[in-house]
Structures are given as C-alpha cells and as structure tokens.
Write a structure and sequence with these properties.
heterodimer, A: 345 residues, alpha+beta, BirA Bifunctional Protein, domain 2, 2 domains, seven-stranded mixed sheet, 12 helices, 10 strands, 41% helix, B: 682 residues, Phenylalanyl-tRNA Synthetase, Chain B, domain 1, Phenylalanyl-tRNA Synthetase, Chain B, domain 3, 5 domains
Chain lengths: 345, 682
C-alpha cells in the first residue's frame, strides 16, 4: 500500500481506539465513510490526479484501504453494541424471586376426579357410560330389582320419599340397570355413575348424598369368573398393580350369586392395620350375577342371558385414595381443600 | 349378631382358632366384623344379611361350619318321655287369620317358680349381649339364640277361658304391650287374643296383662309362625323393632315351632320346676310345601365358570339338609329345607355350590365379547364443559341437593314449576329438593369469604328438579360464581377484578364450546337476585337459556359480602342434546385484512350490540369483524351520547381488497349508521 494511504489507515486506527460512545461512532463514520465529505471518498476522487500508469495500483490500494477500514469499523460497532448489551443486562436485571402473576387455576372436584378415573378404567375396557335420574319410582329403585314390598332388605337403604310418596330419591345407581335393560338390547357393557341418597345423619363417614358407579354386563354367557377377572383388572389399575382381590358370598336382592368384594389393604399390604381393622382386607364394592327375576322384570329371558353387576361408592374410593379424614369436607368446598387436589388432576 | 364360640361347641367339634373361624365364616358369606375375648369365651360379631334368618342363631351357624369342615352336627335334645294326651287344664287354640299365621303351637306348663336363671344360663345370655331377667323369659331368649325361633310365655291364668285365638285386631282395639305402652291397633294387624281381648301383638311383643311375673305358676308357651310382611308392617306402623319381629320379618322356619317349643319346655321343667300338663297343641293350617328346583350342571358351569364334581354337588346340598330328589340328564331335582327361605330358584342353588366350593377358588377370566358404544352425548358434552370451566380457571364444587324453598327460590332465574318436597327430610329447615344451583353457590362463596379465601371462582354442574304439571322435570344446570381478582399481580398494579364483562367472556366461551354460534342479550333487570344494569338474560334461538351478572347489592348487603359477587346460571339440557355440529376444515384466506376505523358519537340508548347486529344485518360478505376500540363519555361528548371508535375488518377470501374498495365499503357502512342510528362523526 502506498505510504500516504497507509498513513490514513494508521490515523483511522488511532481514532478507532478513542471511540467510546455511539455518538462518537457516528462522527467517525461521517468523517471517513461519508460519500461527500468522507476521507475515503476524497481518496477515490484523487484518482484523476494520479498518472494513468499508476492508476490501477492506486485503485487497488484504495480498495484495500476501504476493506481494512470497513472491517475495523464493523469490529468497533460490534464491540460497542456488546458493551451496551452488557450494561443493559446489569441495569435491567430482575429480582427473579419477586411474586409471579397469579393466574387462575381451575380444578375438578376430588369426587368427580375419582369418578372420572373410575369411568375411564371401564371405558378402556369397552364399557359405555349411561345415566339415570336422581328422582326415581319405587319400581326402578326397588321393585324391579327384586326387593319385595315390605322386605327387610329395604331397611339397609334408608330412603327419602318425595312428592307425597309418589317418588323417592334413588338409594343406589342400580335403577340404571333396569332402565338400560329396558331400552337397549344385549350384549351390554355399561357403567352408570351418579348421586345417590340415603337418610344418614352427617358425620365423619356419612353424608346423606354420595356417589356410586354401577356396572352391568349382559350377554349370552357371562359368568362369576368373568366378574372376578373384571374386578381384579379394575382394582389393579385403580389401586396398585399388586393388589389382591377377594370375593365373599353376600346378599343383594338383585343378584344371585351375590358377592362382597375386598381388596388387600392398600395401607399395610395385608398384614393388618387400623384402617383394615387388622383384617388385611378392605371392602370396596358389592357385586353378583344378575338375578333371574331382574331379567324377567326387564323383559329379558334369563335362560337366554346371563350377566353380572357391581356397584361401588365413589366417595369411599376418594377417601381411601387420598386419606381425607372427614367426608363432609367434600361438601364444604373450601378452596384451600379443593386446591390440594390440583396437582393430581 | 353375637355368636359365642363355647356355645357353638355344643353342636359341633371345633379345633380352629377364632381367627380362622372368622375368616372361614366370612368366606361362607357370614361376615365376621369383630372377634372379642370375653372371659373364657370368644365372641364373634356376625353381620348376617337379610336373606339368611336361618343363621341368626347358634345352631344355624354351626350347620354352615359342619358342612364346610365335614364334621357332624349335634342337635339339642328334647324329651323322649310321652306328653300328656289330654290337657289337665282347659286350653283351646284356634287361628282365625290363617293367611297371616300358618302355624301355632302351644303347650301348658304348671307349677313353675319364677326365679333368677342358673349361673351358666345367665352367662351365656350375657355373652351374646342379652340381659338375664328371670328363668322363664331367659329360657325363651336362650332358645331364640340357640335355634332362632322366637317364643312367648303367657301367664296362663290371665288368658280368659284358657283360649288362644289368632285373629286380626279390631279397628281401634287397644293393647298395653310389655314396654307399658298402650298401642292402638288397626284391622290389618294380627294379634293373639284370649276369649275377649288382644293379649299379644303377633310376632312383635306380648301384652302387659298376661305377662309372666312372680305370681305366675302356670304358663302357656307359644311357638308360632307369622307371615313376615304382616309382622313387618305391624312393627313399622307402631314404630317397634323387637328381637321377635326382627326374626319373623326375615322369615322363620315353618317346621321349627314344635321342636323349639319342646326344647324350651324341657328347659323349663329342668330349671323352673315346671311340669308339662298339656299335649303339644299344633294348629297347622298351611303346611310347608318345599319347591322342587332343577339344578342343571351346564347352568352351573355357565354361571360360575367351573365344572362341579357331581358327587360334591350332591353331598354339599345334602349336608345343608336339602333333599336331592333325583338326578337325570345332567340335572338334579332338589327340595330346600324349610329353614332356607332364601332358596327358591336354580341360581340360589348355584350360589350354595359356589359358597362351599369357595369363591376364591373360582377361576378369573374376562368377558369375551364387545358391546356397541352407547354413551350419551349429554355425558360427553358435560365433561367437555367441565373441562372448559377448569381451563377458564374455575374450581368445581358439589353442593347440597336439600334446600329450603326460600333460599332456592331466591336464586331462581325463572320461576317455572314448584320445588319438590321431601316427605321425610333429614333437616327440618331443608325440606325440599333443589330446583336451582345458585343457592348452594352463594352459600359456598360466603363460606369461602368467611374463611378469608381470596379470589374465588367456582362452578357446579348438576341436575335440578321441579314439579311441572304434576310431573318431575329434570334439568341439568351450570352455576358459576366468582369474587376477587382473576389476575393477581398486586406489586405491579396489574390486578384484574372479576366483573360483568369477565363473566360475559366466560359464558360466551362456554356457548362457543357447545357449538352455539349466536345468542342475544337482554337487560336482566327483572332477575331479582341480580343488580339492575349489571345483569343480562341470554337467549339462543329465542329461548331464554341463562342469566349472569352482579349479585344484587341489597342481597349482597344482607349476606354481609365484603366484595362484588358475580353469578351466572345456564340451563344445559337444550344444548347438551343438540346434534353434533357439522365441523369441516375451512381454507385460510391468503389475502390480507383491510381495516377502517370510525369515530362517532351515538345516543346512549343505542347499544353496541345493536350497532354490531345492524352491520352484520347488511349482509356484506366482506365484513368479517366489527371491533370496539374505544368507548368514551366525557365533557366534550354531548349530553345523552357517548363516543365510540369502531374498527371495521374487511376481507375477501378470493383476492386482495384495494384501498378504494375498502373506502367504498366503509362509506356504505357509515351511510347506514347515520341513517339508522343517527351517529355523528367527531
């Protein structure tokens, strides 16, 4: 490079060293790169004063100078921007521990959550969800379910009567069995969740309203063995993969044979604790084979069909699963209580 | 009921521990709740289901164990010496209501001496929770615990003319029962009467007049069978529940009365110094007729999933005292014993086989078929709504279905139909079934405010019921309630309190989620529980479907709320049953939107909704949206008017609109607005 051009570069570099602000940077840009008054433009214009023979060499040197200076200027720009960036970072640093924006957190009611989970297990087994009314007639709640009039089996379910005795509040979800069998032809695989009502004075373990899920399977050849397998499958999914299930003979007027179903205690694993009353087993539901009279009451031939039914208390499952000490808490709806279930949704 | 282990051992040899016994009994269907050690004895607390009255006594429980363990059953003895052929005293028994009393056995014992029972008998009764009274009463109780048949002892001298007549009560007939209550009877009730008066309520309780006391020496012992439903009705109508009625209403053994009678009489001669002075009088107009039931081996397999060994089936039934009448072609013909009132069908026999086979030894399989899906749309839609509400930041609650009418009606969006009364409410102040959900919602909001919970947003979806035209009308409803802030950022002053427009947004989103594209709003000034001017009634297709707004400030004051309460209720039935809206993908427009803003003033009475509806009513396809940018009421706006800035959004799906086309569209719109709503440009 020619000496005079080299001198310009040296001066430029010295000036670059002194630039500290954006304002300064702009001045520098104007001084050297401005089209009209810039040093570079001035040098380019000089070409007419250069002898023709030297012109190509001069042109190359000016271009070289331009490239060097531009590269130098870019570096400077970036350095200044970086410095500015770091300054800003320090200035704008947040106290990241300040409170967050409180966004609304919706939640499902714990009982409805459990209901949904239970329904989901059976839906994955191919069951459909069917519902029925909370206000029922004696026929659907008792008569068609093989509760004879004036039979002590009715005492187990202390009943609310409404509208002058013409109707009652269903004491279980079993009426949905009848409604389903009247309306739909087998084969059937249904579950029926819903509220039920019994005249129990509220205390830690009783509330006059609670939730049940009824199951009903009807086909040509369904057996007690199928019921066992189904409930075992269900219990493993809902409680724990290693839970054991046991059926004991029991009595519900609408099934025969009837069974009470226990699971091995999920708190002590079956060795005996306070919750299972040292028995190692926890009662979770009632079940059995659909009683022939129930089929007849629904217009089905008990010779052609067999079926099983089961019914479980959702509130009880929720208590078992979450260890809620008092069933009335489910009905108070204190949001501090509801919030606790947020993370299990 | 309580079962004494020592007492059981009178009838069966047992080596098993009480814990093993409890397990085995439970697995037979006789659930054992607790096992307790009482002195040298152990007491099992059994929960006997209503179908097994035959197990409400020690012999019955021993029978089950004898079959399960394959050991013999020993029955208590009765006298072998012959009874008198002719009564030494005049005694006559007749049944006038044989439809309610199938059998009545009586026997007279003379020369008894009333005194405390011997120690061993008292201990046995106490062990099973019975209070010893005197030897005569104790013996009847003892036989009840032993054989399960209720007996009654009359002071024979108090029975006029020595007669027993089993008959229906006369209307208004009175009897003073053993508990010293005077009972007024109806013609449906069965009584035991002497020649003149009722002396006992059949199967429920004896009368005070013929009670055995210190002066009694001659006793008539009753051992009868009464129709379960009759005993139950009588006991219920009189509000009584006795040991005897408990047994009879479940069904006593029709073949038991003479045996139980002789068993008690034997004990009385042994322990009370009595002498049997009459033959056993057995009036038995309706004989036990056991049904003959067919039990098919293939049905057994079909129902419980196993091939039972024929020999096992036969032996089990016989040990249970069923009569196996015959077997052919893979089927047994079986007659159940008289004490098994629960067995009348093949399925009942199959349960017997399954019980003794052991439910835990049955195989475990899964149903091998698929059923058609039938889940109702209502169920799915409701779950989607719940999901929407949760996503919108609301918490689901469950509230009481039992309400007071005042509370329920106070928060009713319409006043159709009547509340359904509960005939036998648990709480006198809540004697109705809910017709609305908002009453429970307001109570829950108040409960939370009282507990210092801030920023609360709640919803409930549930059924509510009304009596309309004498019919039960079921409606699914959604209630929402909120107070406080829905965005909380106090230290940056970016709080967002819930208000009318917040709730409107929630309701609007909900309707969109249900596939409802349009709704109309009317002022909710007539909704008494909402604040006039801050409430709306919304309709879809001309039908009112819900209300929402600010809780009326007067009501809020009465409830002592400390902040604004927002409430809404939506009737869901009409939405939930709508057919699935046809959904199809629509192409996205590649052409830009063009906007034109208009600033004008308009009379306060012209609502924004009116303007918006009017603009869409022009049916200009290029108008895709009308947005409100600004609303202003200030000094520079004339009285009675307000200033709006509205953004018109135009778009053509096929091409880019030119500026000139957009201006032309804007001019059409402004022309319309000026003419229709007398707007003035600012």
């Amino acid at each position: 490079m020619r000496k005079d051009l080299e001198q310009i570069l040296v001066e430029f570099r010295q000036e670059v060293e002194r630039v500290a602000t954006d304002e300064h940077l702009k001045q520098l840009h104007g001084k050297y790169f401005s089209r009209e008054k810039g040093v570079l433009s001035a040098q380019l214009r000089r070409i007419r004063e250069i002898p023709v023979a030297e012109r190509p060499g001069f042109g190359q040197d000016v271009n070289l100078l331009k490239q060097e200076m531009e590269a130098e200027f870019d570096r400077l720009t970036r350095t200044l921007a970086d410095e500015d960036y770091h300054r800003r970072v320090e200035q704008e640093r947040l106290d990241i521990t300040l409170p967050a924006v409180g966004l609304p957190r919706g939640s499902f009611h714990p009982i409805k959550m459990v209901e949904q989970e239970l329904c989901g297990i059976f839906e994955r087994m191919g069951y459909s969800i069917v519902e029925g009314p909370e206000i029922e007639t004696d026929f659907y709640n008792f008569g068609a379910l093989n509760f004879p009039p004036d039979h002590p089996a009715r005492d187990e379910q202390d009943t609310f009567f409404v509208a002058g005795g013409r109707y009652l509040l269903r004491t279980h979800t079993s009426p949905v069995q009848i409604r389903t069998m009247q309306q739909l032809a087998p084969p059937l695989k249904i579950i029926a969740p819903g509220k039920v009502f019994r005249k129990d004075t509220p205390d830690a373990t009783h509330y006059p309203i609670f939730h049940q899920i009824e199951g009903l399977v009807v086909a040509e050849n369904v057996s007690l063995a199928d019921l066992k397998g189904t409930l075992h499958d269900f219990a493993r999914q809902f409680f724990a993969p290693d839970v054991r299930v046991r059926l004991r003979p029991s009595f519900f007027p609408f099934v025969e044979p009837g069974a009470e179903v226990d699971i091995s205690c999920i708190f002590c694993g079956g060795s005996g604790c306070r919750i299972c009353k040292q028995s190692g087993w926890i009662e979770i539901l009632g079940a059995g084979m659909v009683h022939p009279n129930v089929f007849v009451n629904c217009g089905l031939d008990p010779e052609e069909h067999t079926g099983f039914a089961f019914g479980m208390g959702v509130d009880r499952m929720a208590i078992l699963k979450y260890g809620v000490p008092d069933i009335r808490m489910f009905w108070e709806n204190d949001v501090r209580f509801l919030n606790q279930f947020w993370y299990v949704q | 009921m309580k079962i004494s282990l020592n007492w059981l051992k009178d009838f069966i040899m047992l080596d098993e521990s009480s814990v093993d016994l409890a397990h085995d009994l439970s697995m037979l269907g006789l659930a054992v709740d607790t096992v307790a050690t009482v002195g040298p004895d152990e007491i099992l607390e059994l929960d006997i289901t209503a179908n097994r009255p035959d197990c409400l006594n020690h012999l019955g429980v021993a029978r089950e164990l004898s079959v399960a363990y394959g050991v013999p059953l020993r029955r208590p003895g009765v006298p072998t010496a012959p009874l008198p052929e002719v009564a030494a005293v005049p005694v006559e028994i007749s049944i006038a209501g044989e439809d309610l009393c199938f059998r009545y056995c009586g026997l007279v014992i003379d020369g008894v001496r009333l005194q405390p029972s011997p120690q061993w008998l008292q201990e046995r009764l106490e062990a099973v929770g019975q209070r010893p009274i005197n030897n005569i009463v104790d013996i009847t109780n003892y036989v009840l615990q032993e054989l399960g048949h209720p007996l009654h002892a009359f002071d024979f001298r108090r029975l006029k003319q020595g007669r027993i007549i089993v008959r229906r009560a006369r209307r208004g007939e009175k009897i003073e029962t053993l508990d010293r209550q005077v009972r007024i009877l109806t013609e449906e009730m069965l009584v035991i009467a002497d020649a003149e008066d009722a002396v006992a309520l059949a199967g429920v309780m004896g009368g005070a007049h013929s009670e055995v006391d210190e002066g009694s020496t001659s006793i008539l012992l009753e051992s009868a069978w009464f129709l379960p439903t009759s005993v139950r009705k009588t006991a219920r109508q009189l509000g009584m529940n006795t040991e005897a009625s408990y047994h009879f209403e479940r069904g006593a053994d029709l073949e038991m009365p003479p045996y139980a009678l002789l068993r008690a009489a034997t004990l009385m001669t042994e322990l009370a110094g009595g002498e049997i002075v009459s033959p056993l009088i057995d009036v038995y107009p309706r004989r036990h007729q056991p049904p003959e039931i067919t039990l098919r081996a293939n049905q057994l397999r079909r129902l419980i999933g196993i091939d039972a060994i024929p020999d096992f089936v036969e032996k089990t039934l016989q040990r249970l005292e069923f009569q196996v009448v015959g077997y052919d072609d893979g089927a047994w013909r079986v007659r159940p014993p008289s004490f098994r009132v629960d067995v009348s069908l093949e399925a009942d026999l199959i349960e017997e086989i399954a019980r003794f086979q052991g439910y835990d030894r049955l195989p475990s399989t899964l149903p091998a078929f698929a059923a058609a899906p039938v889940t109702a749309r209502l169920t799915r839609q409701r779950d989607r709504l719940r999901m929407y509400m949760r996503e919108s930041g609301f918490q689901e609650i469950l509230t009481n279905s039992f309400v007071s009418t005042r509370r329920d009606a106070e928060f009713s969006m319409d006043n159709r139909g009547a509340n359904i009364p509960v005939d036998n409410p648990l709480a006198e102040e809540e004697p109705f079934f809910r017709a609305n959900l908002l009453g429970g919602m307001v109570e829950t909001l108040k409960f939370n405010e009282n507990n210092f919970n801030q920023n609360v947003r709640l919803f409930e979806i549930g059924a509510a019921y009304r009596l309309e035209d004498e019919k039960i009308n079921e409606r699914h409803r959604l209630a929402v309630g909120a107070y406080g802030e829905y965005i909380v950022h106090k230290w940056m002053a970016r709080n967002q309190p819930v208000d009318y427009f917040y709730l409107k947004g929630v309701i609007q989103g909900l309707l969109e989620r249900l596939g409802v594209s349009g709704f109309t709003l009317a002022p909710g000034d007539d909704i008494a529980f909402l604040q006039p001017g801050h409430a709306a009634v919304f309709s879809v297709d001309g039908h009112v479907r819900g209300v929402f707004g600010l809780l009326n400030q007067k009501i809020s004051r009465d409830w002592k709320f400390r902040q604004d309460i927002l409430l809404g209720e939506v009737e869901l039935n009409s939405f939930l049953s709508l057919p699935e809206p046809a959904f199809a993908f629509r192409h996205l427009s590649r052409f830009p939107q063009v906007t034109r803003d208009l600033s004008f003033t308009v009379d306060n009475k012209v609502s924004f909704g009116t303007i918006k509806r009017g603009l869409f009513g022009l049916k200009i396809p290029e108008i895709v949206d009308v947005k409100l940018l600004d609303l202003y009421k200030g000094e520079d706006v004339p009285q009675g008017r307000r200033a709006l800035t509205v953004r018109l959004v135009f778009q053509d799906p096929q091409r880019t609109l030119t500026d000139r086309e957009a201006d032309t569209l804007r001019d059409r719109v402004t022309g319309f607005l000026v003419k229709e709503y007398e707007i003035r440009f600012r």
